[in-house]
Amino acid sequence: MEHYEDAVLCIEIYHSRRTWVKAQEFLVLGRQTLTELRDNICCATDQVMQKAGKHNPSGYILIEDVFCNDLRDPSAIDYSKPIFDWLRNSKDDALEKWECIISGELQQKQKALLGDPTISRLPHFKAVDMHKTRFCDLQFRLGAGYLYCHQGDCRHTIVIRDMRLFHPEDVGDRAAYPILTFQLKSRVQKCCVCKIYRATKVTVDDKWAPENPCYFCDNCYFLLHYSEDGSLLYKEFSVYDYHHE
Ligand SMILES: [Zn+2]
Ligand SMILES: [Zn+2]
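^ inputs. structure came back:
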């Protein structure tokens, strides 16, 4: 897509937990690198991990079959490596899983009726450096859901909704891009246990919590972490007061 350096892309970022909710929308130039977008994505997990001193600079965006790894920080981890190792070492297993993902009900029925004449292949996954990859270097489909993963396993769907040529009504200062065109109003996090009350505490690396970071109301936090006589049940976690975003 080299001709699309001058394109303006409209890109949507979805919420990591309420996955159907759009969190942000940007106008990005085709000539911009994926890190320029990444640095503008705002996710509460980043802030919580920062506060806990567990901030991890690694991350990747998977667009079609290309892993774009953010390796700018010397301590960043190449998240795609274990996936490539797995693809190499357990090819049959990977192929079977891949077929399950891509084949719908109809294909399953055809397969049952006609046997399996087609030998499917795994896509040729590639890995590139996020900060050296521009949107115009990639092949993508408008409206398809792609993946942004950071802080271990905080996952967001990314959708390239629209693409058009730069025109005179666009903001002329190219340094102003990516331009934020939509931001979800911050909502109070609810307690992940009762799902009723506002969260007042957030824990990180909490051995018995269902999520990481995990949000609790006062009541559920104390029920889960303290015994009736008020002694702490376990100490494998860090806890912070949570004031909503
Ligand atoms: Zn996130
Ligand atoms: Zn609760």
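The first strand starts at residue 7 and ends at 14. The radius of gyration is 22 Å.
thumbs up if we can close this ticket
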